[in-house]
Structures are given as structure tokens and as C-alpha cells.
Specification:
Chain lengths: 109, 165
């Protein structure tokens, strides 16, 4: 049921979903392990890309365009997130020398 | 043929993903992410999502990644202190990764797929069909994304002002 035909060869949508799961997990590990805020932002972009892959894969399997429309919306949100995140980061780096994301702990109660 | 394209693109994407989280220089992480995005764009084309493929290359691999590169060039080489302040952070992260991937994998085993709709694949994913969806059913969310982009632009300009506030 989850298979579809591409150029004469049968592909299974679960391959795409598995690849997306691998990429999403890699991004999550990057967010948890890395200390550099810039690389954490990059890892979040990686996770968003993985989700886009699932949306487009389901869109193809169902023959329904709505998944692709949602992927485009995700790209818009990701672009906005990157712009604001990088602006905040540049602002922080301008006022202090940041070595570690944990240096930003003033809000901790 | 399509399977070979899928395997090559998937291996490129996974290699790039590993590069993103292992390279110590941020610029190498960004270039690895560009590799992931180009590999994913190939997969989008394989899934007959032509418009998403073009947007992925122009907006993502082009604009967003150039923005990241500019910021890295602005901030200079990053110093990353090797140790975390949380004990067992690497071990806990590994445990979390295994649990997360295991959960997603277990979900994938029992997923019930819906019967595909009958669509003409000659027009599937073209600019015309995307636009038809975007400007009829999803007009309201589409207009809201333009507001979102405006807010993001204003926020970025405000945050990067040089004068005191």
C-alpha cells in the first residue's frame, strides 16, 4: 500500500520516512550535544528539513498536493526562524564573548 | 534507476547530517548542511515535487545558508569549550537519540497507509498545481506567512540596530 512507482521502479514511502527519522535524530543529537549556539541553530534547520522530507513523501504517496503546500509553509517558518535567531545571536556576540550556550543563564531562577 | 538515485542521495544526506554535528568549525557544519539540502532536493525531485525542489535550492541552500555563512564570517572563528556543565551529557544524549529513533522506527512498522488518490502525475507538483492550492484552499495561511516574514524582517532590523536602546 505504501509503495508507488517512480520511473518504472517500485519505491516504498517508508524508505523516505526512515531517512527522515535518521536526519531528525541527528539534528536532535546536535542540539543536545553541541555547545556552540550557531551549530545548535544549524541542527534545528536539519530537523526542519527532515520533517519537510516526510511531508513531501506522504504527499507523493497519497497523490495529494497538500503535503507539498505544508512543506512550503515550513520553509517560510524556517527562514523566519533563521533570520531572527541569527539576529539575536549577533546581538549577543556583540555585547559579550560567548563560549558556550550555557553562559546565557541569567534567566535561570 | 530511481532506487540507485535514492540510495546515493540518502547516503549523501546522512553523511552531511553526521558532518553537521561532528565538525568543530561552524563553517564546515554549514557546508555539510548545504550537502544535506542538495541531497534532499534530489529526493524532492524523485518524489515529483518540482516546485518544492526549486524552492529548496533557491531559498534554503541559497539564501538561508548564505545568511549563516555571513554570520559566521561576521563573528569570526568560534571557540567551543569542550565540556558541558551537565554531567553525563553525552551519555544522556546518546540514550535520548536511541530512544527517539527507536520510537519513530517502531511507529513506522505499524503505520497504516491510506489508499492513494487518483491524480494525474503529469501535473503533480508543478507550479500551476501548487499555485492552485496556495491561492484557493490555503489562501489564508499563505497571506499569514507574508505577515510572518514581515514581522521577522522588522525583528531582525530591530535586533541588529547599532545604537543604544
Amino acid at each position: 500500500m505504501g509503495t508507488f512507482d517512480i520511473g518504472g521502479s517500485q519505491m516504498d514511502v517508508s524508505w523516505f520516512l526512515l531517512l527522515a527519522a535518521v536526519l531528525f535524530t541527528l539534528g536532535a543529537v546536535g542540539v543536545l550535544v553541541r555547545r556552540n549556539p550557531l551549530i545548535i541553530l544549524i541542527s534545528i534547520e536539519l530537523m526542519l528539513n527532515a520533517v519537510n522530507l516526510t511531508l513531501v513523501a506522504f504527499s507523493r504517496q497519497l497523490g495529494n498536493l497538500e503535503g507539498q503546500l505544508f512543506a512550503l509553509m515550513t520553509m517560510t517558518v524556517a527562514a523566519a526562524e533563521a533570520v531572527v535567531g541569527l539576529a539575536i545571536l549577533v546581538d549577543i556576540f556583540r555585547t559579550r564573548d560567548l563560549e558556550d550556550i550555557d553562559d546565557l543563564s541569567e534567566l535561570k531562577g | 534507476m530511481a532506487i540507485a538515485v535514492f540510495v546515493v542521495a540518502a547516503l549523501m544526506a546522512i553523511a552531511g547530517g553526521i558532518g553537521v554535528i561532528t565538525f568543530h568549525q561552524p563553517i564546515r557544519s554549514v557546508l555539510s548542511l548545504v550537502l544535506v539540502m542538495l541531497a534532499l532536493s534530489v529526493l524532492f525531485l524523485l518524489l515529483s515535487a518540482q516546485f518544492v525542489f526549486v524552492v529548496q535550492i533557491i531559498v534554503y541552500a541559497g539564501a538561508v545558508m548564505v545568511l549563516f555563512l555571513f554570520v559566521i564570517a561576521l563573528l569570526g572563528p568560534a571557540r567551543e569549550s569542550g565540556r558541558g556543565r551537565l554531567r553525563f551529557q553525552a551519555g544522556l544524549s546518546g540514550l535520548f537519540a536511541v530512544a527517539l529513533f527507536g520510537l519513530i522506527y517502531a511507529m513506522l512498522q505499524g503505520v497504516q497507509y491510506r489508499q492513494p488518490e487518483k491524480t494525474d502525475l503529469n501535473v503533480f507538483g508543478t507550479v500551476q498545481s501548487i499555485a492552485a492550492g496556495l491561492f484557493t484552499t490555503y489562501l489564508y495561511p499563505f497571506e499569514l506567512t507574508s505577515v510572518l516574514l514581515l514581522v521577522a524582517a522588522i525583528g531582525a532590523i530591530y535586533l541588529s540596530r547599532r545604537d543604544e536602546r
